[in-house]
Amino acid sequence: MNDKGGRRAHYRYLWSIGATVAALALLNYGIATVMVIDEKQSRQKGMMPHSLLMPKQKGAMTKTPHKEQRTSDAPYPGRQLASAVQADKLVLHKTTSAKSFGMKEKIARAATVVNGTKSTETTEKQSGTRKKIADNAKTTTKTTDADNNNKNATTERKVNVISGHEGAPNLKHSALEQVRPLDYYMDLSRKEGHDKERILQLLQKNAKIRHLSDATYQELPSWTEVTSLYGSEPRLMGTDQCAAFKAGKEEDLAEKWLGVAGMFNTGTNLLADTLKMNCVLHKKQKKYGNKYSGVRAQMTYGKHTPPKDEQFRMSHIIPGQKNIDPRQELPVVMVRDPFRWLQSMCVNYYSSHWPRPYRPSDKRYHCPNLYPTEEEKKKLWFRRYEPILDGTPIVKEKNEVSHSEGVFMDKQFRMGGKKPGKWIGPPQGTTPPPEILVNQEPTTLLTDSELSNHSFPVHVVYANFTRYHYSLVHLFNDWYREYFDLKDYPHVFIRFEDLLYFPDQVVTHICECAGGKLKLGNLLPVRIPSQSTKQSHKSRVVGGSKLQHTGYLDAIIKYGRPATRFRGMTSHDLQYANHYLDEELMEHFGYGLAPHPQSPVQPKT
Prior knowledge:
With 605 residues, the chain is α+β, with helices and mostly antiparallel strands. Among the domains are: 72-138, no CATH class; 155-220, no CATH class; 338-482 and 563-589, no CATH class. Helix 8 packs antiparallel against helix 9 (197-206). The chain crosses the membrane at residues 12-37.
């Protein structure tokens, strides 16, 4: 019994010790929690946290602040003030609060130790600190009242200068710009004679853009500039082939499709997005349900693939499209000003490859490169690279896929490191603007013998074959000539620029040609996506892709400026392009050639 009683007493003793330890731990935790809560409330009120007012006790428990507290300007709890900057950022609590804790002298003493000043300067520092914080937090937001047509009211806020949308993510740069309603700029254009009303109507009615910044308005082209490049009406090419496509019984229209085609960098994604938003083949939808609008983003054999012959189109079917008959599809072929297209190929060359002797970070970099510069001639000679003479028989096509690079291009750099298919952008400030290079090159007239040399041949890798061309200009000619010469396969050509500046006429024409109608009946205007997707292919073969954003407003500005049409091209490049561009295609598409090197005025066509 004595042993049993002794064990019980021992257990009671151990239990009392454990209970005491637990109680002390709980009390300590409660004190620490109260300190953290008090500290958070004090900071929200702009007062000195009590944990800083209280002297740090040896062995006292402190709790690490949360992430949002760590990012505040005040130091951590219990940490001594380390610099005058931290002291300036610290907002001292009110004198009454300091008195309630009896710590007024400690506050003054801490400020004196850090700043080397007397305690009497504390009040001055408080006022100075408040002023700094007020200045930093000052905003200049003024709301615009569009209902009372107050044209002088402005809104200063962070906006996307490129897209023109309030609060939109900035793709290039953001700045504090004056943002005004489009109606303000509409009146301004009429009064000042800026001739931008038609452009503003496109942005307002078709793209549903409501506000612009002053800087963006200055960048907008005038309607006169647009019509000088592309005419006052759209070129609706292929109207005569619409009847052939819709021929047959009425119920046959339910089996028709509308597909998009075009070379790289011609705006095929913008066209596909626009057609899906506005057009529907109602006969197909009536038979198969609302799920099928009849509009497809690409042809069954691929939108970038040349059409070749019927046997090829029937056998070369992309995955997932085997149930669609290519003969029941109407190709809407996008074409773009070849001079603008050449510039875009330098940025996104997809699965096309040609020699470029210098990297973009080099001042001697030249693209579009149709005719070699003096520096490129030296590099070509050093590499023992001989140009191909015009008329020399070359292999037009190989059935196997070729992944060969340019003559001496660094493969890893050309592939773009981990992101193949796109150039690495040059470091900031290392590459001069293209016009500097253009001005440095001679403007002498090239002889026929010099023009007969093709120094930069191109090959394009498709899914299961490779095409070869003398140059980028020949690639443009060969690709569109193949569609142009098709006589037994109805198709429609659409200029990218017409889709930008004449969307109502273009979309209505395409939709009716395929036997469809606008989704909203005959209501106009059609909707244009303000942000369209663009594919940037990852693989060497046209295939896997990621999405990039290309703004409608960006395109309106870029393609309406005549001054940027020949950007990056030397006088010899322009002569080469004029010499080899297919005249029949250029006339059919309505694009003019480059001006003569000795003529400052661009010839009209």
